[in-house]
Amino acid sequence: MADIVSSASVPVMLGAKCYPTALEWIARRAEALVIPLAALIVGMALFSLFIALVGKSPAQLYETMWRGGFGSWFSVQNSLSRAAPLLLAALCVALPARLGLVVIGGEGAIVLGGVAAAAMGVAASGAPAFFVILAMGVAGLAAGGIWIGAVGALRHYRAVNETITSLLMAYIAIALMNHLVEGPLRDPASLNKPSTEPLAEAYRIGNIPGMDVHWGLVVGIIACILSWLLIEKTRWGFAARIAGGNVRAAQVQGLAVGPLIVGFTALAGGFAGLAGMLEVAAVQGSANASLAAGYGYTGILVAFLARHNPLAIIPVAFLLGGIDASGGLIQRRMDLPDATVLVLQGMLFVVILFSETFYGRFKAFNPDLWQRGDLLKRPDLLKGTA
Amino acid sequence: MDATEIGLWGVPLAMLGGAIRVSTPFIFVSLGEAITERSGRINLGLEGTLVFGAMTAYAVAVMTGSPWLGLLAAAAAGLCFGLFHGWICRFRGVNGIALMLFGSGLAFFFGKPFIQPSAPDLPAIPFGGWSDVPQVQAALNVNALFLIGAALAVFLWWAFRNTRAGLILRVVGDSSDAARAMGLNPNTVRLIATGIGGALAGIGGAYLSLYYPGSWTEGISSGQGLMAVALVIFARWNPLGCFAAALLFGGAGALGPALQSVGVTQGYYLFYAAPYILTLVIMIATSSPSRSLAGAPGELSITK
What is the pTM (predicted TM-score) of this model? Predict the structure, then answer.
């Protein structure tokens, strides 16, 4: 009896004696922060090199970027406005990623969500504003959810590669949108830029009081928090994490992996569709080709940079929104092409994916290794446990 | 003969011509991807390579006046992208989606000054000289690259089976362990295979900007690099199959413009989506959860 007690207490005692548990706690979590931050810094350093090579000043570039994206209340509001759709677009990548799926066609769900919401807004006009806006939201959620949910279903039930399917479906969605806004849903008054009929002023979503940022930002942040709760605090999220680690293991445990995958991808697509709805209801006022503005693609980068953690998506979306927002200023001030921002994003993405290889490689982040090392160095401590 | 006299016959004719025109980039990208996938790796970043190749070819052709030099430069640029992809993929857990964004971003950055000037086109050979019908002449005006692509498909089909390099490639793709036992380094073989795949994708991009559609714009590629990945699976990693599948995809891509040429404008955008829908249907039809595909390289993965 005494033996059992002592053997159980040794590891705990070791941990308590040699390293404060708080330090272990920090070390375990630091990896997910330190590696992406280091990757971010390396990416920006490489980009500085690139800018220097094309004969411009990296310092001036970053200074302009700061001014355009973060330096004043005006630019912060601009960045926050751009972050709103990015939050939802990034969730479209992050949620399936927790199940081990690489879905990169969120752009299609955004576009269709926007069209569905615009059509709903026109069809339901006359009803009280609250119901119309709610119906538009549901329409956007449903359109995006069906679109990406189908990708998940094809993945699970037909073993079709979800990465390729989702991108193909993004192209199809954009073609469908072009067809609808130039054909059946076209407002005859929109001459130069074919659009659906404009929403009545009452059905548009306004700004957060005191800010020049629409309510979509709040919706996006709530969606991120709810997603985090779903993944970390519910049994579905727990099941998803198991299935993401090993599908076979999840099936052996009796988890319904199919409905889980379809449910998660549909929710992910629904969020992207909601982003499209917000673009229509808060920014454009109607559905048109501007819906395919690339938020779906920037969202991929946001999700990877946040390591598919919904809470981390919030600051990362702000950062990327700011970089996006500074594109115009960089173009005007420094006489660089507007694609400069795309180069930076591409470089960051390459470095971020490259950094995946470093997870689990550093002893500093893994307290288990500290202890094992100590036990090896001090065999006398092991005697009691044998 | 008057152009309107052939009436609806114009649709299949325009589709044949369109299939030949539109399929050429598919042929090169899919042959390149077939080489890469035979080595056991899927390169999802080819879309970026294609766009960068298109820009490089156009820029070099504008500056030197020679489309062939442009083509060569595009192949070299594609090789660099492919090698970079190959190098980055040898690390654990890394995949190449990022190069899709990076390649396009770089191409748009450097391509900005070349949107205005016009570059010399790659030459085409008029096989339709025997006919008086302008549509027939247009359809049979075949670009040299199409013929090179066809020859390359036959050569690769032969080479995969009958050459030492082909054997090495297949061994590495089917089993890294077997390859190591033979004294081969799978990483090196995959690096070379990805590099060659990138070079061919660059040539596909050069065709886009130097022949059809024949100018450099930021929307030059409409997913050809991505569809090629699906096309290779459909073709069961067989180069001759790639050629046939590319023609099929080209025909689907030509459907919209062909219908438009005879005055059908209704639903133009839906016809424009035909190649994507075709790709999707083919992928669904050829995938199965219970068995792996016949002819699939044993080691095939996007993170290898």
Answer: 0.88
